[in-house]
Each structure stands twice: as structure tokens, then as C-alpha cells.
Model the fold of this input.
Amino acid sequence: MPLVTLCVTLWDAERPGLHSHAERGNDLLNNGLKFRCPLLKEAHYVKSLLALLSLIALPVLAAEPTLYGRYEYIALPEIGGEVLKAKMDTGALTASLSAKDIETFTRDGDEWVRFRLATKGASNKVYEHKIARISKIKTRSEEDEDDKDAVEPTKRPVVDLELCLGNVKRTVEVNLTDRSSFNYPLLIGAKALREFGAAVNPARRFTADKPDC
Done:
């Protein structure tokens, strides 16, 4: 058995209460295993141990979210490369894009939707996308107010769209509805925020660079 594996096995036997990679990695680092295990005197064994610990700690490091502001610029590569101001809303579940002339139709046995963007300065171009599902959305009368009076749920087509935030591109579910009465044509809800590994600081805005995906 390799010496590093032997020492980690001995350490596991001493501390059986730790189960997760994060707990084991942190305890290995904090308790200085190379000093507790007399076998690890040579530098190359220490380097091997450090490499092992970096692999154990990797899932913890990968879980750290990226902090964004309440509002960010997001590009839509599949919608003519449009760059829109988006509201990062942890209170909403799905993302929502402002669209008009929304029409569903069938193509080769699948449900599709065609629409135009309902954004300031948008062209009259028609876009077509395959429908991922139909969602039922409960909407408040005023988006930016803490209004608990909701109207009847509305059905909206949901499509899978590529979104670019800073230099990160993700495919997320986006429902289509006319948001022309709101200040921001694109709403990024909790599901999309998870896809981007994002956390939101409501005191900041436009913290990411312009989209570059």
C-alpha cells in the first residue's frame, strides 16, 4: 500500500466520525497529517499528500457561487445576439423573456412556438423555438412591489435558450410573456441563477463585464 494511502487510512481509523470529503479534507489540513504520520518525512511524499488534499477539497471550491448585482447585462446568442438588461430575481422560479405575437404550432409531431421580441428597439424578426414545456405562472400586479395579491395563473410556453452572463454561457429554461410594461425585459429566476452558480447582492448592479461568450 502506498505510504500516503496508508497514513490516510490510519487517520480515518482515528477519526471515524467524519464522512464527507469536505470534513476529511479540512481535518487533514487543520491537524497537519504530515507531522502526525512519521512515514511522511520525505518531501516527495508530502507533495503527493498535498496533491491528494487538493482533489478532496475541489468539490468545496467548485461550490463557491459568483456574486452578481441585482441587475446585469445578458446576451441571447440564439436571439440575434441581443444584449438585454436583466433583473436577477431570487424570488422568481424561472427566467422570463419579453415577447409578443406568441403563437404555438406543431412541427414534425413536436410543439413549437414563434414570437417576436417585445423590447425597446427590437427588430420585427420572428424567432421559432421548440417548446420544452408549458408552465403555469402566478404573477403579481406589480413586479417590484411586495404585493401578495396574485391573479389567476397564466400558461406560458417555455423554451431552452442559451444565455451569456459575463463570459459564462448556460442553457436555461425561459418562459415567454409580454414584459413591455416592466423596466427589465429579461428576468432571471432561481433556476437560472443556480445554472450560473450565481449569488445576488441587491446593493450592487452591473458587476459583470459585458457579455463575451
